[in-house]
From TrEMBL:
Naturally occurring in which organism (per UniProt): Lientehia hominis
SUPFAM superfamilies, A to Z: lambda repressor-like DNA-binding domains
This protein's name: Helix-turn-helix domain-containing protein
Chain ranges of the HTH cro/C1-type domain: 17-65
Signal peptide: none
One Pfam entry name: HTH_26
Taxonomy of the source species: Bacteria, Bacillati, Bacillota, Clostridia, Lachnospirales
GO function terms (MF aspect): DNA binding
Amino acid sequence: MIVYTPFWQTLEASTESTYSLINKHGISSNTLSRMRKGLPLSTVTINDFCRIFNCSVGDIVEYIPNDDDQLL
């Protein structure tokens, strides 16, 4: 299961806000809403966040194994 807890921590530690992400960087409010709900994001969006925060993917998402994950 992918979680966005690292994103919220990265955002809090930065000089950015959800307002600046939307109005300065063009991130949609729907994207932030999806993250709050733990819904999937595209790798393009994750790349955008890495560029904005000058960070790695691990600062945006984390994988936590879960029994509810799809069986492969």
